[in-house]
Amino acid sequence: MGALSLSLSLAFNCSSSSPSLEPNFAPTQASSDISSPNPPTCPICENTVTQDVPLKGSEDNQKATGNYVPAIRHGEWADIGQRKYMEDTHVCIEDIAKKFGCRALDQCSVSFYGVFDGHGGKDAAHFVRDNLPRLIVEDAGFPLELEKVVARSFVEIDAQFAQTCSGQSLLVANAGDCRAVLSRAGTAVEMSKDHRPCCGIERMRVEALGGFIDGEYLNGEIGVTRALGDWHLDGIKSADGGPLIAEPEMKMITLGKDDEFLVIGSDGLWDVFTSQNAVDFARRRLQDHNDARACSRELVEEAIKRGADDNLTALVVCFQAEPPAAAAVQRSRVRRCISAEGLQSLRGLLGGGQD
Predict the structure, then answer these.
(1) 218 has which bridge partners?
(2) pTM of the model
(3) Where does the record place the region Disordered (predicted)?
(4) DSSP letter at 85?
(5) Chain centroid to CA 7: how far?
(6) What is the C-alpha separation between 69 and 76, in angstroms, rounded?
(7) What's the chain's Rg over C-alpha atoms?
(8) Domains of the chain: which residue ranges?
(9) Which residues pair with 72 in a beta bridge?
(10) How many CB atoms lie within 10 A of CB 65?
(11) d(CA 211, CA 232)
């Protein structure tokens, strides 16, 4: 799914030849002219070599303003360490305004350096790395109110990432008699319904469009009421419409911690499995080996054992890295009691006699 959090540290260096901006730029001010004939463009970077950035006229500017002027250099390196995945990333931009086409700074430049440590994945770290610098530059207070701008940008980028996280959704679109079933803590949740002539809603739609149901078949010819193709069937589908349509029914949910896996199967599978039966079967197999492909194969093999004679396809999509948890046995708590008379009778039967 992707990381939903990260830790980050940022450093800004504000360089300016204009003394009037000094109170607003922390930590330092300096000339923005770079003596290198081909100054680096400073794209968002990964591993790079250290770069020297001598500042032209820095000695003269220091004498004029009485301020210390740094000769900025940077270098960075990253390693995956002993972890299975690399979740760190970083960014180095020597002139953030120039990078994003901001013309507000004629006599100064703002450098941007950041390290982003993802928690449980790299998504958040990469999202902030790719979007936070631009957000800072586009703030109306940049660069004169840099501290306030950065504080606002942190909150805003967090809200923007939250919007991307809300997209952890499941959308199922179905036309025909394939079926998708979600396991939610072991309970089957049907994410689609079969479009067959026996369905009451589909029957009404078909009849309203001039079709009819003959036994289990639409117009006596086809066993579904929605499908792609079948243009060769006269009176069922045409450019002007007809009872057989390709429009899918869709269902969308936000996935939660109890949503374990999805089983998608062709109608041959559902001829011999109920939705709950398929979830129970798949859940036990995943608890054994946690292998989605093996589970799909076992569903098909079990359907054959149960007498399925149609084409069979099963697809299992897992939403969690760990296998489904074993269902807790709910033991009923029944209060057991006996009356005084009953206790006396029981004692008599057991030879206890009277007190």
Answers:
(1) 213, 222
(2) 0.50
(3) 17-38
(4) S
(5) 19
(6) 22
(7) 34
(8) 5-165, 170-318
(9) 53
(10) 17
(11) 16
Identify the helix (H) or strand (E) that includes residue 194. Answer: none
Question: Where are the strands (E) in the chain, listed by range?
Answer: 5-16, 48-53, 72-76, 88-93, 108-119, 169-174, 179-184, 187-190, 213-214, 217-218, 249-254, 259-265, 314-318
**3-state SS class at 148:** helix
Tokens at 284, concatenated: 């036990």
Q: Which of 163, 145, 54, 74 is nearest to 114 (CA)?
A: 74
Q: Which CATH superfamily is domain 170-318 in?
A: PPM-type phosphatase domain (3.60.40.10)
Q: By CB neighbour count within 10 A (0-12 exposed, 13-18 middle, 19+ buried), where does 232 fall? A: exposed
Write b or e for each residue in 264-284: b if 16 or more Cβ atoms lie within 10 A of its Cβ, otherwise e. Answer: bbbbbbbbbbebeebbbbbbe
Give, as one character, the DSSP assignment of residue 158.
H
User: DSSP strand E in 29-87: where?
Assistant: 48-53, 72-76
User: 82-136 pLDDT, tens per residue?
Assistant: 988 899 999 999 888 888 887 666 667 788 899 999 887 888 899 999 999 999 9
Q: Which residues contact 61 (CB under 8 A, 6 or more apart)?
A: 17, 30, 31, 69
